[in-house]
Design a protein that fits this description.
The chain is α/β, with parallel strands linked by helices. The chain folds into two domains: 7-18 and 89-227, HAD superfamily/HAD-like (Rossmann fold), CATH 3.40.50; 20-81, Putative phosphatase, domain 2 (DNA polymerase, domain 1). The chain is built from ten helices and nine strands. The strands form two sheets. A seven-stranded parallel β-sheet has the order 5-4-1-6-7-8-9, sandwiched between helices. The radius of gyration is 17 Å and the shape is globular. The protein starts with 6 loop residues before the first strand and ends with a strand.
Length: 228
């Protein structure tokens, strides 16, 4: 089959996994553990997608390395305990990934999560076999640095012009731009459609289930669209 893209790189949180509420609650728990006043959810939502250390630096500009390490440890503990908040894949994820794999695409993940957290999520959802390669923020530079996508392209043997990044945050789309690859945004995650649109994704999807049909029929244009 003659198609433009062969490697599809997915963000995890906010794109495949509906984990926003758990991330926000875990960040607020970490703040309380360090005797800080918890920041509102709106402030925390804007840093979802970054690695935890970069997220802490963004929230607390004067933070030193000791503070960042303590915060990161408190966050990871809170997240793994669950905060009483379940997380689940967005509707259609299993079917979409199965269809894309069967069609012959190479699938990968580039995430701000740490390796332990991603591996746990992959195992719990049964998605581990779906992905040819994965990269996490504790193995590389955090988004929006291009290192994760560059590493995935090397592992998969795919050039930038045949790679597509799918994500819900500006960090995902900036990472794609920095790596010289095209991107697709999704509207149901943590960053607004207007913010995503400013980074020129090929399309903004309202549900992940729309991805296979878009891939089949919409490789020709470069204008940003929004479809359900």
């Amino acid at each position: 089959m003659n198609r433009k893209f062969s490697l599809l790189v997915f963000d995890w949180d906010g794109t495949l996994m509906d984990s926003e509420a758990r991330i926000v609650a875990s960040m607020q728990t970490a703040m309380r553990a360090l005797d800080l006043n918890p920041l509102p959810a709106t402030d925390i939502r804007r840093i979802i997608g970054l690695g935890i250390r970069e997220a802490v630096r963004s929230l607390y500009a004067e933070a030193d390395e000791h503070f960042i390490s303590r915060f990161a440890d408190a966050y990871r503990e809170a997240f793994l305990q669950g905060e009483g908040i379940s997380q689940r894949l967005f509707p259609g994820v299993h079917d979409v990934l199965s269809e894309l794999e069967a069609t012959g695409y190479l699938l990968a993940v580039a995430t701000g999560k740490g390796r332990a957290g991603l591996d746990r999520g992959l195992c719990e959802t049964g998605l581990t076999p779906r992905f040819h390669a994965t990269r996490c923020a504790d193995e590389s530079f955090s988004k929006p640095h291009p290192a994760m996508i560059e590493a995935l392209m090397r592992v998969c043997g795919v050039m930038p012009e045949h790679t597509l990044m799918i994500g819900d945050t500006t960090f995902d789309l900036e990472m794609a731009r920095n790596a010289g690859v095209a991107s697709v945004g999704v509207s149901y995650g943590v960053h607004s459609v207007s913010d995503l649109r400013a980074l020129d994704p090929l399309v903004i999807l309202d549900c992940i289930s729309a991805l296979p049909s878009w891939l089949q029929s919409n490789h020709r244009g470069t204008e940003t669209a929004k479809i359900a």
